[in-house]
Structures are given as structure tokens and as C-alpha cells.
């Protein structure tokens, strides 16, 4: 059959305009938050000087060192990690058809913690004197181990899901079981660890954006951007899966393949971000829910909104975490957990509906 | 013939569920599949758009063998309305626009939007277009599902018990809508249902399944009380009211 052509009413375009406006406002907020983050700290720098330093204008070397050398990599790391984790969470919630889907709830973070703990046990932890009590002497070894463990966890979840027909409940239950397993394995290592090793393990699990260097940032940004583009290209497939598996299949969506690839790519983003920065929970859970309430569950808009909104939320959290107990720098993961845990409980109490 | 199902067999774990299924359907015709619970009505429907892969047989839509086509190509030929429509935080317009998924590669164009608007207007759903799907009633939701299937521009429409969860008024509205769609768009439709009276009133052909085989395939006028008794194991009497057959159980 051939459908006739109608005249799409203005109200539909206004409705799309509202969604685009929300994303644009979040993007403007992100730019402002970035300037704020670069200016605030133990040394306060006026916004104009921050902008001047970013534009490479002639200025004080001290300001350049603080803005571009110290604060910019941290702020960009917070934005990239927040965006990446939020997008990964949005996709996990869609493919699992479960509002509690996120990198944190699927055990991938726990696997990363285990990988890092194992690397520390094998010799990458060190006790130093001075302001930093414990440092990781072989950060790349720890990062690689955390990445390998996260990918192993997601690989196992995907393998089990393939055996059982890529059902959401299989993925969720496998993730929860693996999370418990990796937590137990980490505790086992911690039990036998020396004081120094134990401190190094705990230190690593504090997700901290200050760990990022420009090289690691490039990797994080490239993985996040490529994954986002892949997800965005599949927006209609995620919308269709949201409408039910049968409906999606009747629309020609290869549900099993989309689900497994979505799981793999979102696990990959999570693994890379966590491996470089440590565990940052709840951003992947909260941000998609916030924007789903604001602009609906259309993934054409929800995914870019989650990317920008996640970046904004984590950057603000990171800035607050740096300022709240000055001169002590609180790792951002502590703050996101404080914000996220009550939200998590609220989601459970409130139930399935967005 | 628009639809030809030939020698279809379906097995599950080596256990035959459907055997020797043969029937055909013309454009503008509605076929209703009837039979007791668990007899394989939904399985047969899902075989017809390759959601279930039959062990043997062919399904031809306009001479094309559906089982050799890719999922998107099947979706461009066959629309499917499931028994239970899931809700999500999507506007009705976008939920129907989703039906264009098999036709697009990257993004929806103006043409796709225009087709959605035309279908919404033709089904009388224009007042719902900006509502979120998760705020709709069961009847409205089912109409949106039918609109989504129609915007796929299918040659064949499959509906799995589309009235089973609806009240009487909505059942009548949905059946009238399906009849109007089949007649107006000159497509073929196959649906499963339990309500014999509704089926006999609206269908062009009814197909009775019994133990995985076709027990009878006939026009509603030719359905006999013996046929129904043999399929359901229940004695019935068929009255005729204003020329319409009405099935009454004799209990």
C-alpha cells in the first residue's frame, strides 16, 4: 500500500523545538560550568582571565599553569566521563528495558575495581610520604588490568546472553551475579593485602578526574565520541525496543544483535572511563532519567541530551567536590554517590514508569 | 493471490506445532484464525512475518517468498500488531513515525512525517498526536499500533488478538477500524481472536485450527455448529440475526 501525504502541523515542530532547546540550554550550561570550574579553586581566577588563557592570549604564566596545566584536563575529563557514562546508561536502560540499567548496576564497575586491586597486589601500589599518602606507581598497569577485567565481565554477560537469546533479564541477572563475584574477589585480595596495598586499592576505587592526562583524555574522548555516534545512528532501533520486542522485530530491527552490540559498546565506554579515572557511580543511572522526564524517551534527542547533561552534571559535581572541603580535594565519586544513592532509592520506590 | 501460504510446518524442540498449513488470501480480504488456547494461532501468525522460522513451507506475498527476505524488507511488506502494546514516553506522532524505521537508513525525512500525519488523520487520531503513549487508554493504544503498522505501507497486515484486552465498545471500534483499513487501503489482513461472533461478523474467511492442523477454512456464512463443536469441544447453536450469524453455547 502507499500512504497519502498529510500536512505536518506546526505543533509537532514546536514539540521538537522544545527538545532541541533543552539540549541547547544544557550545552550553554556546560560552557558556563566549564569557565566556572576553571576559575574556581584555592586560587580564584576571574572569568576573563580564564577565557584569555584558553585563547592563548599573553597573560600570567601562573594563571596559564593553573588553568591549562591543572584545571583544564580535570574539567575536560569530568565532562567526557560524565557524558560517556550517561550515554552508556541511557543505552543500557533502553536495551535492557529496565530503568535501573547502568554500568554501575551491571557489575562492570566492580570488575574494574577487581582488576585494579589485582594489579596493586601484583606490585603497582606504593607508599609515599608527603601530601599524598598512597600513589599508584604503575598507573598504566592498573588501568590495563581494570580495563581487561571490565571487558571480561561484559564479555561474560554477552556470552551468557547469546546462549539464552539476548533476553534483558539474562543480562541483568548475569551482571548482578558477576558484580557480586568480583566484589567477593576484591575482598579476598584486600584480606591478604598489606596495609600499603590495601590503601592503594581503596585509593584507586575513588573515582577521581584529576588522574587524567591529555593522552588518556584523547583516548577517552575518542571512544566516547565514536560510541555516541554508533548509538545515535541506532536511535530508532532503541525506540522500537522500548515499544516491545515483538514490535521492534516486526519493524525489521534485529533485536538480539542491537542488544548485544549496544551492551558491548556501552561496556567499552564504561571500561575505558573507569579504567582511567576510577569508579564514578550513578551518573549513568540518574542523567538519562532526568532527561527522560524532561524531553521524553525518544533516543534521537535523549542520547545527545544525556551526553551534554551527563557532562554538565559531572563537571558541576567535580567543581563542588573540589571546593566543598578546601583545601582537601574530595574525589567526585563520593559526591555522585551521595547524590545518586537517594535517587536510586527514589527510582525503586517510584517503579517502572519514567 | 496476494498471500499464499503453502505446506507450512512448524516444530518446536522437534515437536510439531503446525502441520500442512495451506491457504491464500486476496487484497481487501480479512482472514480470522480461530481455535482453542495453545493450538498455534499466534505461532502461525508469527511464521507469516518470519518472527518464527517454519521448518518447511513457503509464504508468498505478491509472489515474493517472505522467508528469503531480510528483516527490513519483510517489514516493508508486512505490518504486525502485537497482542499487548508496550508504552513508553514517546509522543503518539513519534510512535507512529517509528513505523517508517524499515524505510530509512539514517534519519526520517519530511515525506515520512507527511505520511504519518495522513495516517493519523485517516484513522481519526489527529487529536492524540502530541499525547505521550504512556498516557493512552488500551483502545487508543491499539489504534496507535495499527497506525504504526499502516505507516509501514504493508501489503499484508497481521494482528494478534487486537481486541482481547478491550471493553466491548473499543472491541467494536477496533474491528470496524480494521475492516475500514482493509477495504480502504486494499490490503490483506490476517488476525487471531477468540470472539467467534466478532470474527463471523467482520471476517471474509475464517480458519479453524485444531491440534496444529487446519480443521476448516470457510466463509462466515458457511460455518456450522458442528465445526465449532469439533474444534472447541462445546455444543453451540448458530442463530441468524439480521443476516448475521450469532454463536450461542448450549450449556
Quick structural gist:
The complex is a heterodimer of chains A (354) and B (251). Chain A is mainly α and 354 residues long. Chain A has 14 helices and 2 strands.
Radius of gyration of chain A: 21 Å
Strand content of chain B: 25-35%
- The H-and-E topology of chain A, N to C, reads as HHHHEEHHHHHHHHHH
Structural class of chain A comes to mainly alpha
> How would a textbook summarize the main sheet of chain A?
2 strands, antiparallel
Q: Could you list the spans of chain B in which at least 5 consecutive residues all have pLDDT below 50?
A: none
Number of helices of chain B: 8
Number of domains of chain B: 1
Instruction: Find the CATH superfamily of chain B.
Output: P-loop containing nucleotide triphosphate hydrolases
Assigned CATH class of chain B: Alpha Beta
Residue share in helix of chain A: over 70%
Could you give the order of strands across the largest sheet of chain A? 1-2
- First-last Cα distance of chain B: 41 Å
Shape of chain A: globular
Summarize the structure in words.
The complex is a heterodimer of chains A (354) and B (251). The mean pLDDT of chain A is 83. Chain A has helices at 10-39, 47-54, 61-96, 108-124, 139-163, 168-192, 195-205, 214-233, 235-242, 245-250, 255-277, 283-295, 299-324, 332-350; strands at residues 125-127, 134-136. Chain A has a single domain (10-350), classed as Orthogonal Bundle (ABC transporter involved in vitamin B12 uptake, BtuC), CATH 1.10.3470.10. Chain A has a two-stranded antiparallel ribbon. With 354 residues, chain A is mostly helical. Chain A is built from 14 helices and two strands. By secondary structure, chain B is an alpha/beta fold. Chain B has a single domain (3-249), classed as Rossmann fold (3-Layer(aba) Sandwich), CATH 3.40.50. Chain B has helices spanning 41-48, 71-77, 92-97, 110-122, 138-151, 168-185, 196-202, 225-232; strands at 3-12, 15-25, 30-34, 56-61, 64-65, 78-81, 156-160, 188-192, 205-210, 213-218, 236-241, 244-249. A six-stranded mixed beta sheet of chain B has the order 6-7-8-3-9-10, with helices on both faces. In chain B, strands 2-1-4-5 form a four-stranded antiparallel beta sheet, covered by helices on one side. The longest helix of chain B has 18 residues, at 168-185. Chain B is globular, with a radius of gyration of 18 Å. The N and C termini of chain B lie far apart (41 Å). The model of chain B has no long low-confidence stretch (mean pLDDT 90). At the A-B interface, helix 1, helix 9 and helix 10 of A face helix 2, strand 6, helix 3, helix 4 and helix 5 of B.
Amino acid at each position: 500500500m502507499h500512504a497519502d501525504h498529510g500536512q505536518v502541523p506546526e505543533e509537532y515542530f514546536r514539540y521538537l523545538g522544545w527538545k532541541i532547546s533543552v539540549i541547547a540550554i544544557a550545552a550553554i550550561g556546560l560552557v558556563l560550568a566549564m569557565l566556572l570550574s576553571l576559575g574556581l579553586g584555592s586560587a580564584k581566577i576571574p572569568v576573563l582571565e580564564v577565557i584569555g588563557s584558553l585563547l592563548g592570549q599573553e597573560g600570567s604564566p601562573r594563571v596559564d599553569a593553573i588553568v591549562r596545566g591543572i584545571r583544564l584536563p580535570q574539567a575536560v575529563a569530568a565532562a567526557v566521563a560524565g557524558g560517556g557514562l550517561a550515554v552508556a546508561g541511557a543505552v543500557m536502560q533502553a536495551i535492557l528495558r529496565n530503568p535501573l540499567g547502568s554500568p554501575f548496576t551491571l557489575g562492570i564497575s566492580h570488575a574494574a575495581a577487581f582488576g585494579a586491586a589485582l594489579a596493586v597486589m601484583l606490585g603497582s601500589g606504593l607508599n609515599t610520604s608527603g601530601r599524598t599518602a598512597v600513589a599508584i606507581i604503575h598507573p598504566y598497569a592498573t588501568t590495563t588490568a581494570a580495563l581487561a577485567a571490565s571487558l571480561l565481565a561484559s564479555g561474560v554477560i554477552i556470552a551468557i546472553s547469546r546462549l539464552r537469546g539476548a533476553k534483558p533479564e539474562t543480562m541483568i541477572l548475569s551482571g548482578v551475579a558477576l558484580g557480586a563475584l568480583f566484589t567477593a574477589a576484591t575482598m579476598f585480595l584486600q584480606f591478604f593485602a598489606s596495609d600499603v596495598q590495601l590503601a592503594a586499592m581503596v585509593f584507586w576505587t575513588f573515582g577521581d578526574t584529576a588522574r587524567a592526562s591529555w593522552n588518556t583524555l584523547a583516548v577517552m574522548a575518542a571512544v566516547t565520541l565514536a560510541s555516541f555516534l554508533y548509538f545515535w545512528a541506532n536511535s530508532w532501533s532503541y525506540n522500537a525496543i522500548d515499544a516491545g520486542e515483538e514490535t521492534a522485530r516486526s519493524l525489521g530491527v534485529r533485536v538480539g544483535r542491537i542488544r548485544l552490540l549496544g551492551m558491548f559498546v556501552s561496556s567499552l565506554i564504561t571500561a575505558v572511563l573507569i579504567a582511567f579515572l576510577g569508579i564514578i557511580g550513578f551518573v549513568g543511572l540518574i542523567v538519562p532519567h532526568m532527561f527522560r522526564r524532561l524531553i521524553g524517551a525518544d533516543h534521537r534527542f535523549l542520547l545527545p541530551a544525556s551526553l551534554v547533561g551527563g557532562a554538565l552534571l559531572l563537571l558541576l559535581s567535580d567543581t563542588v567536590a573540589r571546593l566543598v572541603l578546601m583545601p582537601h580535594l574530595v574525589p567526585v565519586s563520593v559526591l555522585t554517590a551521595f547524590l545518586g544513592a537517594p535517587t536510586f532509592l527514589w527510582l525503586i520506590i517510584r517503579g517502572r514508569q519514567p | 493471490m496476494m498471500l499464499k501460504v503453502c505446506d507450512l510446518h512448524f516444530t518446536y524442540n522437534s515437536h510439531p506445532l503446525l502441520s500442512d498449513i495451506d491457504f491464500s488470501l486476496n487484497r481487501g480480504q480479512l482472514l480470522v484464525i480461530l481455535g482453542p488456547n495453545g493450538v498455534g494461532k499466534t505461532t502461525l501468525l508469527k511464521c507469516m512475518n518470519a518472527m518464527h522460522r517454519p521448518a518447511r513451507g513457503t509464504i508468498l506475498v505478491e509472489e515474493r517468498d517472505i522467508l528469503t527476505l531480510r528483516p527490513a524488507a519483510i517489514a516493508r511488506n508486512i505490518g504486525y500488531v502485537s497482542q499487548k502494546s508496550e508504552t513508553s514516553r514517546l509522543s503518539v506522532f513519534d510512535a507512529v513515525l517509528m513505523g517508517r524505521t524499515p524505510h530509512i537508513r539514517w534519519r526520517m525525512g519530511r515525506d515520512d512525517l507527511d505520511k504519518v500525519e495522513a495516517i493519523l488523520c485517516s484513522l481519526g487520531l489527529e487529536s492524540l498526536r502530541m499525547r505521550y503513549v504512556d498516557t493512552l487508554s488500551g483502545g487508543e493504544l491499539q489504534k496507535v499500533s495499527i497506525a504504526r503498522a499502516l505507516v509501514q505501507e504493508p501489503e499484508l497486515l497481521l494482528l494478534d488478538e487486537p481486541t482481547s484486552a478491550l471493553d466491548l465498545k473499543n472491541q467494536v471500534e477496533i474491528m470496524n477500524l480494521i475492516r475500514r483499513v482493509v477495504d480502504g487501503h486494499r490490503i490483506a489482513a490476517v488476525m487471531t481472536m477468540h470472539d467467534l461472533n466478532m470474527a463471523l461478523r467482520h471476517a471474509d474467511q475464517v480458519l479453524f485450527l485444531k491440534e496444529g492442523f487446519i480443521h476448516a477454512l470457510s466463509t462466515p456464512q458457511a460455518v456450522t455448529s458442528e465445526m465449532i463443536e469439533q474444534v472447541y469441544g462445546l455444543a453451540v447453536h448458530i442463530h441468524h440475526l439480521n443476516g448475521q450469524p450469532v454463536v450461542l453455547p448450549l450449556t
